[in-house]
Design brief:
heterodimer, A: 3 domains, six-stranded antiparallel β-sheet, 6 strands, B: 176 residues, mainly alpha, Arc Repressor Mutant, subunit A, 7 helices
Chain lengths: 241, 176
């Protein structure tokens, strides 16, 4: 190695053998050991490098710095944790709300709204034959016994209507030019505890509420014309159950 | 370095690297207040970006890179550098020069005059013993550029610190 090449390597700063390939490092070492110019110069460069490195690190570090950094790290973690906790809480609240909504919707049983029922319009007319009534109820998965006190010879129509969003069987009885509509309500769909047996008089149309004599899970809401319901109740037996 | 969950343990990172990062920040900025701010900002940003690092062994270089970027961001905002040109300085060592004597403050004054890319290279090289390759990765330049910058920065420092020494000697001999 000549002096020019050696000077080039010396100019690169503190020499690290690991960053020169083995042949260059060996050639440089040999040259520096024997050259009266480059050898002392290399020593001077190394001395300057050592001094520079030593003074470079002579920086006083504030004693409180590590404590403040640890506090900062802990503070950041707390904030992150609170943010996560907030998100998890919000998500949990949302899920709980959805679940409660589903539960409420599933179990909600409204108190029968008689005014709504009063205004409801008949929607469908099916087979009016009394002897087909039970068969029809079974076919439609309706486990509600028809009212036993009615005269089924007067039955004209029966069909399923919707009352307050729930499917409700409706029996239509006719006596002369007067009608009685009987809504069969089950406690599967309605909170029957909110109903009281009795009658309400209206302007030409009256309402009556009756419970099944032996099954209090079933109520009948009757909308009828005329002064008395008695004409619809007389005598006849209901279809065999 | 990592917690049992595999995440970086930042308290351990603080213990391992705060001193080096503070010194680096001080030598870059020349101000104790800026050095503290930069060190704190570095750990804050590191926590925010913790998912960027997979290898805990690379944490040191990663932290240094964050600190330098934070410093550069400040530098661009402040735009009040008083820098020297290194164009007149060659890379080659030309003669044996007497070893200057200088203290930490004089070195910092000289460093402050270096353009940032030279200053960063020389600090990393002398201070944290980063390899040429490490410095090249930190600065995003080829290794040859790092070598050239180091050589020129070193020539500048030697010249600047020698003149500081001789002017100090002159002042001393003049009774100043």
């Amino acid at each position: 190695m000549d002096c020019r090449t050696a000077q080039f390597f010396l100019a690169l700063g503190r020499l690290r053998e690991a960053e020169l390939d083995e042949a260059d490092a060996q050639a440089l070492a040999t040259h520096l050991a024997g050259c009266p110019v480059c050898g002392p110069q290399a020593e001077a460069e190394k001395a300057f490098d050592r001094q520079l490195a030593q003074v470079m690190q002579d920086v006083a570090i504030p004693k409180s710095l590590p404590h403040r950094l640890h506090e900062q790290v802990a503070r950041y973690r707390r904030r992150r944790w609170l943010a996560y906790a907030g998100m998890i809480t919000a998500a949990a609240a949302l899920l709980l709300g959805v679940w409660l909504g589903i539960q409420w919707r599933h179990h909600y049983r409204p108190v029968p709204d008689l005014d709504l029922l009063h205004d409801q319009v008949l929607v469908e007319v099916v087979n009016p034959r009394p002897e087909k009534l039970l068969e029809w109820l079974h076919r439609n998965d309706i486990d509600v016994p028809p009212p036993p006190q009615f005269n089924y010879a007067l039955l004209r129509h029966y069909y399923i209507t919707r009352f307050q969003g729930k499917p409700v069987p409706l029996l239509l009885f006719a006596h002369g030019n007067r009608q009685a509509r009987v809504y069969l309500l089950s406690d599967q769909h309605f909170d029957l505890n909110g109903l009281r047996a009795g009658q309400q008089q209206g302007s030409g149309v009256n309402l009556a509420v009756q419970f099944h004599p032996s099954d209090h899970h079933v109520a009948y809401v009757i909308v009828y014309e005329g002064d008395s319901l008695a004409d619809f109740l007389v005598g006849d037996e209901p279809p065999a159950t | 370095m990592t917690s049992p969950g595999g995440r970086l343990d930042f308290h351990q990172l603080v213990d391992d690297h705060y001193a080096a990062l503070y010194r680096y920040a001080y030598r870059l900025s020349g101000s104790t207040a800026d050095a503290e701010d930069l060190t704190q900002e570095t750990f804050y940003q590191a926590q925010c970006k913790a998912d960027q690092i997979r290898d805990p062994g690379a944490a040191k270089a990663w932290l240094f890179r964050i600190l330098r970027n934070a410093y550069l961001y400040r530098l661009r905002s402040e735009k009040q550098q008083r820098l020297v040109s290194l164009d007149g300085l060659g890379d080659m060592v030309t003669a044996i020069e007497p070893l200057p004597t200088f203290d930490s403050g004089q070195l910092q004054e000289a460093l402050n005059e270096l353009p940032e890319e030279f200053r960063t290279a020389v600090i990393l090289y002398y201070f944290e013993e980063f390899s040429y390759r490490d410095i090249a990765e930190q600065l995003g330049v080829p290794i040859g550029t790092v070598m050239s910058r180091l050589a020129r920065a070193k020539r500048f420092l030697r010249k600047r610190l020698s003149s500081a020494t001789s002017s100090h000697d002159r002042r001393t001999s003049d009774g100043l």
